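Researcher: Here's the sequence for the chain we discussed earlier.
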Amino acid sequence: MRRLAAGVSIITTYDESARHGMVATSVCSVSAEPPTLLVCVNRAATCHGAIRAAGFFCINLLTTDNDALARRFSTPADRDARFHGRDWATLATGAPALVGALASFDCEIRETLDVDSHTIFVGRVKAIELWQDDIDPLVYADGRFDRLEGCPVKDACA
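Model: Thanks. This is the structure I predict for it:
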């Protein structure tokens, strides 16, 4: 699985007591009409129960400037500091949306599917915020955060 390169996102939700968040690379577009996305969350993750109970989540697409934040959200020891030092907004559901992310997709859960160790949460997009014009996504491959470089496939950018 380490060879499957993917964009990096922070998935967020909240309940009456706290904001919850985690890093995910398993985010995928399902449909454009109506706009629908999915995210796969390990049922052992502390955020899993919070997402299921809330019924909504926000997918925050990270830029290469967010690599330290991605590390913070993926380290259990940093759980209490995950939302500190950054600006967070709310869109339609109230889930935290990262100001300065590449984009934030605020979603209401429409379907869930348990598959082995994970739950696939299918979310209908209720609001979108495009925070940046520059597209410089943070990617994860082979156990490390990285960036896309130019156009390595011959004639792909022509």
